[in-house]
Amino acid sequence: MQMKRDYREDFPLLMQNETAYLDNAATAQRPACVIEREKAFYETENANPMRGFYPLSLAATESYEEARKTVRDFLNAAHTEEIIFTRNTTESLNLVAYSYGLTNLKPGDEIAVSIMEHHSNLLPWQMTARMTGAKLHFLECEQDGTLTEETLTKGIHEGTKLVAVAQVSNVLGCQNPIEEICKRAHEVGAVVVVDAAQSAPHMPIDVQKLEADFLAFSGHKLLGPMGIGVLYGKRELLDAMPPFLTGGEMIESVTREGAVFAELPHKFEAGTVNAAGAAGLAAAIEYIQGIGFPEIMEKEEALTRQAMEGIAKLPHVKILGSERPENHTGIVAFTIEGVHPHDVSEILSSDGIDVRAGHHCAQPLLAYLGDNVATRASFMFYNTPEEVERLIQSVASIRRRMGYGE
């Protein structure tokens, strides 16, 4: 029987640190190949891309554009120019809100957002509604995160012009029916903006199959560098949108009176770009593809199942969302009766376990669920069953350590 690789060996921080890092939904760790690729860019290719005709600048430009092609293939986009590099998911979603939303929405139009959205996919649409006169409508989920057919039927209708929804909730871990949402939205002439920050690291994404109009994700959650993100947009939509930022490199020509903007994708990439980050992101994608999503998903589901089964047996502990581990996409959020999540996190930290505590940038969802705050453990394929068992044992001890005697 062939033994599977210990992928932890590829991650320098994990090899030098005994902590059980279970905050992967916030940011993932970096494999050595990503760190080395970014380092190599600065050591051998460092120049301003697309600005010079000398060898270093040409090499930087080539690395940057090759990274764009890697992302195109990763998402199965139809065209390379449909891939826009940004700083992160937040910037990508704001780009759509400012450039598409403010241009195309008007008073009385409806923007449908799920109650599960991270603030990054809610606040831009609140702003858009205020500035255009459009109305915000919330698609409310069941306690397990399900968006029912009735909810989608009532929430996506002739007056709906834009739907903003996460593919995977960063609190409940549930996967939303993006294909069905896109189908319904397109039937009424609406566009769909998908937040893929929590899905891109854990499952294959095919934007053509989904028929998403826009889709965003961050490099740092995908084992890549911080400060690099991606916006995918259908070419015909991006072509019609004005630039989000203006300045250097996003123009064809400038006169005293105005400017002619560059073609896609460069009209949305003003200023000096993060070419080293793009190269690191490409290395992260290639690393993930080398493992393969089937193995990644199998391992993460096993870790999630172990955590849920262990935590569910503990008295006074409630797991948020579905009872089915396969519906949690590596995320287990929970509350402990009588103990604030910040105290839970501090106690776990003293045991060498890193988790997230608070509202997880999803305050409307937690208020809707009646919890307001929660503790979240989130797993990546490099985590181990031993780390999960440490989590379970530590959670089991928290009420006693807080003086409840049990």
TrEMBL record:
CDD domains: SufS_like (cd06453). Pfam families: Aminotran_5 (PF00266). One of its GO terms (molecular function) is cysteine desulfurase activity. The keyword Transferase applies. It is an enzyme of class 2 (transferase). It comes from the Bacteria. It catalyses: (sulfur carrier)-H + L-cysteine = (sulfur carrier)-SH + L-alanine. Its cofactor is pyridoxal 5'-phosphate. InterPro entries: Aminotrans_V_dom (IPR000192), Cys_dSase_SufS (IPR010970), Cysteine_dSase (IPR016454), PyrdxlP-dep_Trfase (IPR015424), PyrdxlP-dep_Trfase_major (IPR015421), PyrdxlP-dep_Trfase_small (IPR015422). Its EC number is 2.8.1.7. PANTHER family: CYSTEINE DESULFURASE, CYSTEINE DESULFURASE 1, CHLOROPLASTIC. Belongs to the class-V pyridoxal-phosphate-dependent aminotransferase family. Csd subfamily. This is cysteine desulfurase.
